[in-house]
Write a structure and sequence with these properties.
This protein has 20 helices and no strands. With 342 residues, it is mainly α.
């Protein structure tokens, strides 16, 4: 992971050049290398198949230059090196380490190109990283509308994306002390509708967490009636299985990151249970017991990787949903509906 200095609080935007000044490691100049590779990867898929030998074979460089060709955007087509397949994990790390909103916005053209040219490259971990960062920069609604505008991606919207949106909404409910159950339905009905791949156990856990948190803010309903359907469907949940715990501990940082999605959801669920009155917590004893072996293992990974703060606490602290008077938010569905219609 690239280490970068803290951005001055009064700094609202940065150019790419200025951003490089905030790197502190010897790898500073290579911070943007993965994004450059992804952009080149998308461009490779945009080049006409017949032109690829001219563009990507060095022996044809002189011939290509003499033709003075331009692409669809009016740019001169020049000799290039094949970029190879960019690491998705490195791209996620790049997004995680962005400093300000301007950097994140610059990714949107990259995401659009990938969605148009190489839709299979856009996976939930990349889209979720973008959404988490949008929330961190206080632009979650804009980020969500942008994701809904990715025409090809939303056709394959998954439960992992629903989990991410639900988790951010959980933090919003917690920080803004939202107490209306209708909030959950209004904010999750559309992402749930987009998800055609079925609801995972983790999705059920985070949505159960949302109900718990609403109840902790407003106990004017019977919790066991509202959560009964989710609780019933989780009776078959057997916990999160780790194939080889000892082997994973040989590479703790890598595997802690690999489990990050499940860690966030289970930590949020435990947080939601802890927010309830003690008598209401009892109904979740069995679920917590099923989660405990996984929690114990990932805690060992966290310790071995020298990570001080848990993923959930870190995300919670970085996501600025300030308590405020109710306001009318920009609608989330129209942008998504428009994306589906086009």
């Amino acid at each position: 992971m690239f280490l970068r200095q803290q951005v001055p609080k009064n700094l609202k935007s940065l150019t790419r050049t200025n951003c490089l000044l905030f790197h502190t490691s010897s790898k500073a100049l290579s911070f943007y290398a993965i994004k450059d590779q992804v952009d080149e990867f998308a461009y490779y898929h945009e080049v006409n198949k017949k032109l690829k030998p001219l563009v990507y074979r060095s022996k044809n460089a002189e011939t290509l230059t003499s033709l003075n060709l331009v692409d669809a955007k009016g740019r001169t087509i020049e000799p290039r090196k094949y970029p190879g397949f960019p690491s998705k994990d490195k791209f996620v790390t790049f997004i995680d380490n962005l400093l300000v909103a301007d950097e994140l916005r610059s990714l949107e053209s990259t995401f659009k190109d990938l969605d148009r040219l190489v839709p299979d490259y856009l996976v939930p971990s990349l889209v979720n990283a973008y959404l988490y960062k949008s929330a961190e920069f206080g632009e979650f609604y804009k980020g969500l509308d942008f994701v809904y505008s990715l025409r090809n991606y939303i056709k394959n919207f998954s439960s992992r994306n629903v989990d991410c949106i639900s988790l951010i909404r959980y933090i919003q409910i917690s920080k803004q002390e939202i107490s209306d159950l209708k909030f959950i339905e209004s904010k999750l009905s559309f992402p749930n509708k987009l998800n055609k791949k079925g609801i995972s156990d983790l999705t059920k856990l985070i949505q159960l967490s949302l109900i718990n948190k609403i109840y902790s803010n407003n106990s004017n309903f019977e919790l066991n009636k509202i959560n009964s359907e989710l609780m019933e469907s989780l009776k078959t949940f057997e916990g999160i299985k780790v194939k080889d715990e000892k082997l994973e501990l040989t590479e703790p940082l890598k595997n802690y990151k690999r489990w990050s999605h499940a860690i966030l959801i289970t930590e949020a669920f435990k947080d939601s249970v802890n927010s309830l009155p003690s008598e209401e917590q009892k109904q979740y004893t069995e679920l917590l017991d099923k989660i405990q072996p996984f929690a114990k293992h990932t805690a060992e990974l966290q310790k071995a990787a020298n990570i001080e703060e848990s993923l959930f606490k870190k995300l919670y602290a970085k996501t600025p949903f300030e308590k405020k008077e109710p306001v009318v938010e920009a609608s989330e569905e129209p942008a998504a509906d428009a994306a589906e219609e086009k």
